[in-house]
Known about the structure:
Layout: E1 26-33, H1 42-58, H2 69-77, E2 81-87, H3 90-96, E3 101-104, E4 109-112, E5 116-117, H4 123-126, E6 150-153, H5 161-178, H6 181-189, E7 195-198, H7 201-208, E8 214-216, E9 228-233
Parallel strand pairs: 1-2, 6-7
Antiparallel strand pairs: 1-4, 1-5, 3-4, 6-9, 8-9
Amino acid sequence: MSHDVTPSTDSPFRSEPTARDQAPQFVLPLVVRIEKAAPPARTDALETAARAVLVLLADERSAGDGEWAEVVRDWQDARIRKVVRRARGAEWRRAEALPGITVTGKSAEVRVFPPVPLDGWPKDLAKLQVSGTDLDDPEPPAVADPAAPVLWLSPDLDMSAGKAMAQAGHGAQLAWWELSAEERAAWRDAGFPLAVRTAAPGRWAELTTSGLPLVRDAGFTEIAPGSCTVVADHPALR
Length: 238
C-alpha cells in the first residue's frame, strides 16, 4: 500500500472521498492524564502524544503476527483517525488497566491503545470527555534542535490541545511511513526524540511546499476540510 502524502494521491487524511472510505473505519484512542492540580504543559503533551503514536507503530505487537497487527493494518488501510480524550484519578487508573502503552514526557502522561472500530470503543474509554482539553505552556518552548525531528504546526489554525495532539500524531506517523527500516530503527533506539513547534508564518509557506510529509486534515472536527495542519520535518527526509 502506498503512503505517498502529496495532495494528488490517496492520502489517509484527504477530505475528498477515496478508496479508503470503503474500508471498515477504525480510530486510534489516545488518553492524556490531566489532574486538576497538576495539568501537563501543552507542548509537552503534544510531543508525548506524537511519541506515543510512534511507540505503538514500532511495538512488536503491531507487526507481523503480533496481537495488534491485524487491527493496526486495518486502521492504516482506512482513514487515519486519532481521538484524544482526557482522564484523571480513577478514570486514568481504569484506562491504564486496558491493553495499551503509557508514554511519559516531562510533565505529560499519554496512554495509546490499539485501534478500535469507530463505534466500538471500550466502555471505560467511551465514557471519557473528548472536548475541552485546553492546556498552556508555563513558559515559551525552547528553540527546537535542528538536528532532531520537528513537527511544525500551522500558525494559521487555532486548535484545542486535544486536536493539536492528534495532528502531531498524524505528522509523526507520516514521517514514520517515509523512513527506511534502518532510519526507523535508529529513531526508535534513540527514544523517538522530536519537538512540536508552531511555525513562523513565512516559514510555514516554505514548509508546505518543501516536499516534506504534510497533514491535510479531513475536517471531522474543529477545522475546515483540507486544512494543512502539520509538516513533519525529519532530518532523514530533508
